[in-house]
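It is worth pausing here to work through a concrete case rather than discussing structure prediction in the abstract. The textbook approach is simple: state the sequence, then state the predicted structure, then interpret. We follow exactly that order.
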Amino acid sequence: MKILETGKFIEQKGLELVVALAVLAILFSGWIFYFYSWRAVSTAESNFKGIILKESDLDEAVVGLDERSSNLEKLKQVKLSPPDIFR
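Step two, the predicted structure:
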């Protein structure tokens, strides 16, 4: 008669069991959410650091392009004669 004993136990302690299981489920889902949100935050932080490094690389590239364009402007100012071009 194990079924009757189990039924009586659930009848007496059923609400407490349901509340305890609900609390455990909430705590477990909160832990999972915290774990994955912490991982997401740390991943986003590392990507943000990568973006900062990329911005510095882009700044260096812009400086290099500015230097090249100024050198190109200097070349446009020098008049070349056709014999100088074909030498």
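Step three, interpretation. Residues 37 and 43 are 10 Å apart (CA to CA). The chain has a mean pLDDT of 82.
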